[in-house]
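Handout, page 2. Input:
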Amino acid sequence: MDLLSSSAARLLADTILALHVGIVLFVVFGLFAILIGAWRRWAWTRNFAFRISHLLLMVFIAVQAWLGQLCPLTVWEQALRQHAGQDVYAESFIEHWLSRLIFFQAPWWTFVAAYTLFAALVILCWFLLSPRRKSP
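Output:
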């Protein structure tokens, strides 16, 4: 007896996909916000909680890529889609959707390199445009 119906699995998979898109947007636009915020002197872009979550997410993404592992959200989404009887994709979330967006096929190592360079830029911003903790 299945505890999860096909329609519930499909809804959960779509929810995870939306969350995944949100995380990607947070990481990408977060870096742009940090860079623009330094130039425009936006205090919120130096908020410690914002910056540490941004940094940890990007480092996690880069480490997963170096280990040749798919993002846990991708794995979870695909398992739910399979449970729902939907088609699944084998590559990473970014690789799958980016190739659909720009019709670009690239080997896995290019995504590893891109994640690594992006993570390095995030780390560099951490030190050059350091976050600030609130004073007691």
